[in-house]
Amino acid sequence: MKKTFLLLLTFLIVGVGTTQAQDNTKAIKKLLKTSTKALKKYSLDPSSNIGKLDEANAAISDAMKLDGADKMPELWLAKASISQSIAEQDIIARNDIMKQNVLAGTPDAEINYMVKNPSASVEAFGSYAKALELTEKKAAKLKIVKELEKNTTFLNDIASLLYSNNKDYANAYQTFYTLVQASNLVKTNGGNPLLDTDDKVEEMTYYSAVCAQLAKMDTEANTVYKEMYDAGSKKIEVYDALFKANIEKDETTALKYLEEGRAIDPENTSLLFSEINYYLQKGDYKTLEGKLQMAMDKEPNNASLRAVMGNVYNDFYKKEKDVTKAQDYFGKAEKYYNEALEIDDESFEALYSLGELNYNKAAGLVAKYNELPISASAKEVDGLKSDFLAAFEKALPFFLKADEINPKDYNTLTALKEIYARKDDFAKSKEYKTRIEGL
What we know:
mainly alpha
């Protein structure tokens, strides 16, 4: 008797589960019908029936919450259509501005439009992709692929607006990246992809990485760059980005990316400049010297490179104990700074550095002057004093010109204050002291 009771109880429980599933299916289909009907009314007259789009969206959202809904392709397709319609509102608004520009006789005018639904086209793709995954009939699949083709054009247009007009780089990254996924899915399923060449796919993938960087989404950016690298990209920017991303945590890997990029395009300067900045930060001036020479050969009219090369020899000069070698380094530093000024006579870096070079020489002579013994001859004393005053005097015009270009540089003002004090022009020295205090 007990066994019979348990068996009946089991059947009862199974029966309840089946009834619940049937009720869910009915509820889902009812909500789907409501949503479809509302979307159809919206499509007939979008401007007058905007509320119907909200109604369609609300009904499909409620349906998706019910058990079993995520296994129904027709529900995902309905959800995709709603998201696509929401995205289309931005496209229509953008097109209206374009028409107004044409009528005004300014067809090339900037399109000043803020995207209101930046994620709608991305959400539409996700739903279409899910519907495609769950659909078995070939004819039904082809219809979804056609909708995906339309979706890729929306993704492309909205990504461009988000990037160039809205400066919404986070959403632009996601939209560009989704555009690549959508185009690949269309191609895989026999459709006509918007990105119909490998170059177009690579370019849009690259845009997504750039947008991620601009949005400070470094992890996402580096993931995309690594995907491009793994796919065999020859784009130098990919290698440069991966070099910079890894240099702090894995120097060996970073340098590998650098070497591979240089092998692809030995004449490209972007990697060379990244390498120069790396050796600058590292303080490896010996290696830097050769890299800078390579860069100057490629860009002979780059004033900054010559100023940096001057800094390299200035560093050698400061550290050299041998007087003859130190003087040689001084001369080379001076030479490169002057070459920088020949290219750009308002290079603050070159002007300040020439001032600093002679100022430090003067300071070294002052130290020797202060160390002279009491027994030193008048000729020796006067000679050293004359030398350090001459060095300060040589530094002065460079600092004055640097101050004209950047009147708020602390180091320049400090040097001018000290030089005028050495010249016994205390009024002028006080003037610079006051400016320093006011910074």
